[in-house]
Amino acid sequence: MDVKLINPFINATINVLETMAFVTVTAGKPYLKKDNVAVGDVTGVLGLTGVAHGTIAVTFEENCILTVVSNMFGEKMDSLNEDIADAVGELTNMISGQARRELDEVGKVFKAAIPSVITGKNHTIRHYSDGPKIAIPFQTDGGEFTIEVCFDR
Amino acid sequence: MDTSIKVLIVDDFATMRRILKNILKQLGFKNLVEADDGTTAWEILESQEIDLIISDWNMPKMTGLELLKKVRASSQYKTAPFLMVTAEAQKQNVIEAVQAGVSNYVVKPFTAEAISDKLKKILK
């Protein structure tokens, strides 16, 4: 997989979370993910087509996403409900949009599908291609979340 | 900026409608109507008098761009302020929206200040 496809998603993730949820986000060391079990409790997954085909997934630990969405709404959120799922979908959408803009500037054009959201402990993330799954963990004041990027080339 | 006007917020994500409503309320707007896709938005536009449209781009049934074209083709709304708030910020998207007659464009993610600044420009 072209590693140049990864950085725009890291940059976009930090910018989206810091701008919309006012949290400080620190990226950890990327690693190759071997299985399909989500690290987090709620995940947004979005398909991308263009110069490569693949998916991005953004998976949040419960405490992390409750803090993030509480900040976005300006009110306390205390359980993983439909509002949280909707917010994860929109965050995934925004991360994809910003990353695609950065990729577009270097001639790599992608189109995005509408994101889907999965909730629950140990749920499975299904990527649309068989390429390597690169996971990047992030730390926030409210907890951890991870993005997974998987492209066919 | 006249905050007594009626504003239609169009986005398929309830999250984004909620964030925009919060920002608009903080700015003093009280008369807010919501739609979760372009088709519902058009039904509202046909049945109520709307002064400002704030719309997402990527939505099921009817996209924000399709809604914008429909609005500009109507006699009632051909000059109505239309703010596109979207994650679709690639050059081609911006060109298409400008050609279709968008009043202004805000890229997600955004700050409350960015929304306020754009509204001040288009509601002068």
Q: Short summary of the structure?
A:
Chain A is α+β, with helices and mostly antiparallel strands and about 150 residues long. Chain A contains three helices and eight strands.
Descriptive report:
- The complex is a heterodimer of chains A (153) and B (124).
- By secondary structure, chain A is α+β, with helices and mostly antiparallel strands.
- Chain A has a single domain, classed as CheC-like (Chemotaxis protein chec, 3-Layer(aba) Sandwich), CATH 3.40.1550.
- In chain A, strands 1, 2, 3, 4, 5, 6, 7 and 8 form an eight-stranded antiparallel sheet that branches.
- In chain A, helix 1 packs across helix 3.
- The longest helix of chain A has 24 residues.
- The radius of gyration of chain A is 14 Å and the shape is globular.
- The N and C termini of chain A lie close together (4 Å).
- Chain B has 124 residues and is an alpha/beta fold.
- Chain B has one domain: Response regulator (Rossmann fold), CATH 3.40.50.2300.
- In chain B, 44% of the residues lie in helices and 19% in strands.
- Chain B has five helices and five strands, in the order E-H-E-H-E-H-E-H-E-H.
- Chain B has a five-stranded parallel sheet, with helices on both faces.
- In chain B, strand 1, helix 1 and strand 2 form a beta-alpha-beta unit.
- In chain B, helix 2 packs parallel to helix 3.
- Chain B is globular, with a radius of gyration of 13 Å.
- The N and C termini of chain B lie close together (6 Å).
- The model of chain B has no long low-confidence stretch (mean pLDDT 95).
- At the A-B interface, helix 1, helix 2 and helix 3 of A face helix 1 of B.
